[in-house]
Amino acid sequence: MTTTLRVLLVGVLAAAVACGPKAGPPVIPSLPGDGDSNVAKPVDDGKAPVADDPWAGRTDLIKPPPPQPPSAITLPPLERFTLPNGLEVVVVKSDRLPVVSYQLMVRAGRADEPLARLGVAELTADLLPKGTRKKNALAIAKAIDLVGGLITADAGFEATWLTCQTMAKDTKVCLELLPEMLTQPSFAKDEIDKAKSAQLLDISRRLDDAGALASAHAQNLLWGNDHVRGWVTSAAHVKQLQQADLVAWHKTWFVPGNAVLAVSGDVDVARLKKDLARAFGAWKKGPVPARPRYGDEKPRGTRVRVVDKPRQTQTQIRVAQYGIRHDDTRFFPTLVWNYALGGGAFSSRLMKVVRSEGGKTYGASSAFDRNADRGMFLVTTFTRTAETVSTLELVLGEIVKMQAQGPTQEEVDAAVANLAGSYAMRVAGADDLAAALVTADLHGLSDRYVSDFPVLVGQVSREDAADAARTLLTPRDTAIVLLGEGDAIAAQLEKAKIPFERVAFDKPIGPQPVEAAPALDPRTAEAGKKVLDAALAAKGGDKLLGLKSLRMVATGTLQAQGQTVDVEFDRKLVLPGSMRMDIRIAKQFDIAMAVVGDAGWQKSPAGVDDIPASQMPALALQRWIDPELVLTRHRDKGTTVALLAPTKLDGRAVDVVKLVSAKGFEATLYIDAKTKLLVQSRYPNGGDETIETFSDYKLVDGVQVAHKRTSKSSAEAADLKVTKVEINPTIDAAIFKRPQ
Predict the structure, then answer these.
(1) Following CA atoms 712, 714, 715, 718 in sequence, which dihedral angle do they give, to the nearest 10 degrees?
(2) Residue 379's closest CA among 464, 504, 473?
(3) Per-residue DSSP letter, 254
């Protein structure tokens, strides 16, 4: 499956099968911010309000009391101490529930990764619960499940969190598992492969999640390729990570002096001190490395990036600018003006103007990062493709108004009432409060920030909020991303005389790792060509070299988007450059695509469209890697060949040859050392890697054809059985013409 074919199938798959359940995001402790995450939101069902109000004019109703002035929350008893090895401990004692939670924060995350090892923090965290020197992943899972507990590990931008929670009577389970995971991870290679596969799947899914993809581009466009915030983890980054990288990352950052342990719940503090000293005593001291530092980016004016994602009926819009440090004195005023602008859901200006008044979209919002560094301020919305520029103008107009005038007094009152009034629910649990205290310390804030949050919000005046908006908002220095149908968006921007850059949606974002090319020693190249010549002879020799046309029909299953559906393929080739593919999905949806030279068209239940130029390289790769023809590619002008070290696949000895075409297409071929038949090919495809396997060869008109084929990448998998093969059939040229 190529990236292009997957994009064509996505919409049909969505209609063909219902989406299954999706795993929720990992629970990572966070510092209270806007304060509306756990507050019920207005339900908008699209219906007009009822005209007759039965309560209108009543004088016997009880009026709600006026809002009370914001007040601080009372922190429960806290105790802080440091273990002999340097591990800081914060204890939040609460006997409301017979539960104990351990949350260990290591000050190392995405912000500390070098570009050459992008993704190592998350991969290391994923592996911590997957095995130690004493227990494998199953043993850890059984131990925590036996007591009905929870154990997790996850890396964020600033830190890595390990969490263990059990009933108070079972706290010894956490005191055994958590230190063992922390100090003795095994980083087993089979578990690394599983974790990398899961990450690759998530990265691939980003291509099908227009919102996530647009936000990733906004991050890169704003910060650039020389700042850690501008780096976006790709498949190539994950693939290059090795066990040694995880070991080195863990050894460098996971030291007691670089961590804080928060214990909350029903604990006896005196006994806890002894238990912690015993449990974490083997964790040896180590030097705390200096964290990487990046200067604030200089304003670069407004930049617009169009991300071309064909066949989209809506445009994802992102407007980004530099944000604010968490310890900035303007932080609380910024909470207030942002609530008025786009953080207040249906009461915000963006929602009212873009949705209610403009009728452009279902939603619009704004938010900013809450980190020790400056972070990003981001406005998010989407609209019909035809309304892209007009919606963007509405968004920018509201930012300009907020910068110039600030919020009204009514908006300030509403923001303060919501932010301060809902805060207590965010820290109602002892574990939530403990996490907030630890994160406040990470950001250079005191306990008073956590206890006095409502009061500090309530102290914000309209003038404070207006001043913060005026000094922080920069509507003339923004990074704007428009993701959708590239041609239609570009036409609107050109008409409005707005300069922009344009990129394909499946192009990796930001700087990519450089992979060393295979050695092209002449002796190695000649040896590789001999292996390919032998494979070509075994497959069909002159019969294959004289191939003029081919038809192949196959049936099987396709797995994509978490679903499995039946598929039927009918592929026709007319050499040198014509291809058509007719596909039937789930026995009810028909799609087709055809390519002639450097142009093509595609047909689906939605209609007929030209294949965008951005997708043509992927289709050219598909034709070049075609299993019936790839064994002839070493004879093409400009193709380089390298014989790699032999290996074994499923117990059979195979020769390994790498091909690189003059256009940069790459393929690694695995050829049975005994039969000389191709058994597997691997090739990079849109930032991912596709692995195709071939078996059950049968002779068809002098050509050996594999009748069983599988294709697998992190995004999809296909399992096919060839049911019909025609060598040099007569194919009507009319089938390649674009339908009306």
Answers:
(1) 10
(2) 473
(3) -
In the chain, where are the structural domains located? 3-12+516-736, 86-211+228-279, 303-428+445-504
**Cα Rg, the chain, nearest whole Å:** 30
In the three-class reduction of DSSP (H, G, I as helix; E, B as strand; rest coil), residue 582 is classed as strand
* Spatial contact of 444 and 60, defined as CB atoms under 8 Å apart: no
pLDDT, tens digit, 9 for 90 and up, residues 198-248: 999 999 889 989 999 999 999 999 998 889 999 999 999 999 899 999 999
Q: Which residues have C-beta within 8 Å of that of residue 182, sequence separation ≥ 6?
A: 104, 128, 162, 254, 280, 283
Given this chain, do its domains 86-211+228-279 and 303-428+445-504 carry the same CATH topology? yes
pLDDT digit string, tens, across residues 669-678: 999 999 999 9
Closest CA to 643 of 504, 515, 530: 530
Query: What per-residue confidence (pLDDT) applies to 492?
Result: 96
Closest CA to 633 of 523, 535, 731: 535
CATH number 2.50.20.10 is the correct assignment for the domain at 3-12+516-736: yes
Closest to 535 (Cα-Cα) out of 610, 442, 628: 628
Dihedral sign for Cα atoms in the order 424, 430, 432, 434: positive
Task: Give, in order, the Cα–Cα distances in Å from 429 to each of 409, 439, 457, 546.
Answer: 33, 16, 21, 74
pTM to 2 decimal places:
0.71
Which residues are CB-neighbours of 264 under 8 A, at least 6 positions away?
A: 91, 92, 93, 94, 100, 101, 103, 429, 430, 431, 433, 434
Please tell me what DSSP assigns to residue 134: S
| Inter-residue contact 114 to 248 (CB < 8 Å) | no
The region that residue 465 occupies, defined by phi over 0 for left and psi between -120 and 50 for alpha, beta otherwise, is: alpha
In order of 318, 356, 364, 383, 482, the CA distances from 360 in angstroms are: 15, 8, 10, 6, 15
Between the alpha carbon of residue 612 and those of residues 168, 204, 738, the distances in Å are: 60, 20, 14
What's the CATH fold of domain 86-211+228-279? Answer: Cytochrome Bc1 Complex; Chain A, domain 1 (3.30.830)
Q: 303-428+445-504, which class in CATH?
A: alpha beta
Token digits for 590? 């028909």
> In the predicted model, what is the mean pLDDT of the chain?
87
